[in-house]
Amino acid sequence: MKKPDILRVWGRILRGRTPFLSLEITKECPLRCPGCYAYAPDHLGPSTTLRQLSDYRGPDLVAATMAVVRRLRPVHVSIIGGEPLVRYRELSDLLPRLDRMGVEVQLVTSAVRPIPEEWSSIGSLHLVVSIDGLPAEHDRRRAPATYQRILKHIARHRVTVHCTVTRPMLAQPGYLAAFCRYWSDRPEARRIWFSIYTPQQGDDSPERLRPPDREILFAELSAAAREFPKVHLPRMVLDAYRRPPRSPGECTFARLTACLSADLKTPITPCQLGGRPVCAECGCMASAGMHALAGLKLGGLVPLSAILNTSLRLGGRGVPVLPPVEPETA
Questions:
Q1: What's 129's domain CATH number?
Q2: What is the pTM (predicted TM-score) of this model?
Q3: How far apart are alpha carbons 151 and 266 in whole angstroms?
Q4: What phi and psi, each to the nearest 5 degrees, are found at residue 247?
Q5: For residue 304, what pLDDT band results from cuts at 50, 70 and 90?
Q6: Reading across the β-sheet that carries 159-165, which strands appear in turn?
Q7: Is 64 part of any domain?
Q8: Does residue 131 belong to any structural domain of this protein?
Q9: Closest CA to 262 of 87, 109, 93, 101
Q10: What is the pLDDT of residue 10?
Q11: Structure letter (DSSP) for residue 130
Q12: Which residue, of 92, 220, 229, 314, is most buried by count of CB atoms within 10 Å of its CB?
């Protein structure tokens, strides 16, 4: 989101609208990544799963998506999946339309297939490529979206490289620095983002960080941000990773974002992650960024969160407080 969009976001809130929209544009994906939240059994609650939904394709997908955008009028749309590039033909029609409407779009992809070259001329489009570490680990986890394919498919684009940190990455000293060095040297990488693996309730997978791991991670991320200019990790975002919102009701991102699954009807709650996330270990960069902004004080006195709450009330939406996620029991 660009700085001029802040006033547009505020205006949407005052009008009772949700300024951000997250769309699972398709239920299809050729990858089977460990820890993928979208295909978790409880992602959409107990009644259905992403793969069980009926999704759109062809002109119907373009029309249905445009109808949602016109109805909700978001300032910013995140297009996720599934794998969005499965629907690259539809997106080649949809993305220019959203650009003409002045809607900023972030498209998150594995770059498993070529990214259309003409997309590079769409000013409102921000490409984010998910990369799980260095080649040896990434290729094992995310085949067929291997490094070889990624480098080929992003060659004519400038992208944000997005790495979700998992526990195995921290077992090798200097691993994250090596990752930053590799992508800092690539001209296709505009910036580098880091999220942290966010577990669901009851998750005991190898990906989940333990408390000592998180302290090691915060030290390594802080050092990486100082050493590598492409690493976009402001201190206030890192601080928000240390102290994330305690529940979806306290999460600015969850409160201001409408999340819809692949049928463009089913809501994803309590946030984009779905299911029952462990909020105390949230590693979502969008959540951390908005939480950090909400904690700022105008003139050193008035927290932005207070202005947000007042704006939500004036907009007639009230202050949405979702049921808190219960803490895990040992």
A1: 3.80.30.10
A2: 0.90
A3: 35
A4: -160, 165
A5: confident
A6: 189-196, 159-165, 125-130, 104-109, 76-80, 20-24, 257-260
A7: yes
A8: yes
A9: 87
A10: 67
A11: E
A12: 220
